[in-house]
Amino acid sequence: MAAPAKKQEGFHDCRDAWARTLEDLAARDPRIVAVVNDSVGSSKLGGFQKAFPERLVNVGIAEQNMVGVGAGLANGGKIPFVSAAACFLTARALEQIKADIAYARFNVKLVGQSSGVAYGELGPTHHSIEDFAWLRPLDAVTVIVPSDAWETAEAVKWAAAHEGPVYLRLSRMPVPDLDIKNRIFRHGKAELVRDGSDVTVIGCGTTVHLARQAAEKLQGEGISARVLNMATLNPLDEEALAAAAGDTGAIVTVEEANIRGGLGGAVAEYTAGHQPVPVERVGFPGFVVTGSVDFLFEHYGITADGIAAAARRALARKR
Amino acid sequence: MLKNDTVQTIREKALWMRRRAFKMVYDAQLGHPGGDFSAIDIIATLYFGVMRYDATKPALESRDRFIMSKGHATGALYTALCAAGYYPEDWLDTYMQPNSRLNGHPNRNYLPGVETNTGPLGHGLPVGLGIAIAAQISEQAHRTFVLTGDGELQEGSNWEAAMTAGHRKVENLTLIVDRNRLQQGMGTEETNGLDPLDEKFRAFGWEALMVDGHDIGALLDVLATPRMGRGRPLCVIANTVKGKGVSFMENKASWHHGVPNAEQYGIALEELV
Fold first, then answer.
1. d(CA A308, nearest CA chain B) in Å
2. ipTM of this predicted complex?
3. Residue A1 — pLDDT band, cuts 50, 70, 90?
């Protein structure tokens, strides 16, 4: 197992929020079931298994079967949450996700755990940085990437209530609470973390708090940066993108994913077709080198300094 | 109904399905008639002698489920659903036409009676397993039937599901293998052999039976027998003939997705009586 990321005060593993919320929902709604691939522990579903043993289906190490079983459970009137390491769930069962879940529009919730490079030293076979590019084009699938424990809980609740396929992308890497006042989870809508006028930094998942730190650094240099939390990658909040392009004229994207086909790709697709502005993409360019998750974030510039540097590059490209 | 009457009814439905499916393929000049014809007697037996359903209420919770995992054999599935009353016959005339509900592979959102999307092979059994587990959790009595091709069993996802179904003793699940011994290019045993297939399923914790897949009385016997209390899923290996019923198609791999010309169409209709 990969070394755990540094434990810091006020940082939380979002899997705790996920598991607690699912248990609460399951206690109220007998239709909720969980499907796992020998991943009870890593999905933190030990409590769920104890409370609802008959509603946890462990298919063993068999991801294609796992996703198909999820589709069948939905056919039988259940609300299945199919939870597994994101790398295996999305890659190994991609055709099942496409044909059995997305194209069939079955009411299945796919939950990718330990996504991105959370399994740092275990290497690219165990990283899930391509999942955005794989799932974003499946138009029926809502793709949500919560940024902290609060948003994780809200996203799980929203997914359970929503009729249709959802991909929830969770990490195991502790992140701080964003601590935004009067927060409301609105799927498909970017969340304004901080307003600004010179450049917009858009993050998702584990990178949003870094985007905010970068904006604080930039403020010290007299640069006003807007920060958006784009928790929903599909459907993308095009209204917020149009406003970002129009109001600030430059965009930086930050994601724990491959910059091709992910958040950066999505933003570039939109702006190229509607409102061309400089877009600097921070993330991984492809398979990563060996190292811990903290090392990899540092190495690839997914840090407050790296994001601030990208913002300066975007500003320099502004006409 | 007496069994002999049921057999006669199913035989008549199957004959109509073969004639109608071949017309669809002829009109569209597209399709998979060889696999349609090996599966039609099995599907007709399920819809007109075994399964409980209400075609006017396709989503009825207590319905028995049928999944056509060999989703390319739409000629067999679409004619069965039509004959069962899920939609009018003129829908069949649109087979593979632009904007038709009748795609070359079935979609549950377009066509009532289709339980899940299939086409890529090896998807039906895991989904059927999920339906059967849902019924177990809810303590519902309905059964789930999955029909796979034999070549299709080369997809590993089937064996993932076979393992889980045996382990969980999913007795309300029945897999029927359309054992025509031919896949797209050539024989299954020349490609990636499956025999001894029954022993493989038994080793996975299933009950496995062999049956003549064109003997409707025998199919009725094995498929209509209740499963509750058996403690094991059932695999019915139905020995069939690809292209069954049309002399020039029988046992020819080339009819996997072959389409008839006018002369062949005429000969087939003369034989299918």
1. 46
2. 0.95
3. very low
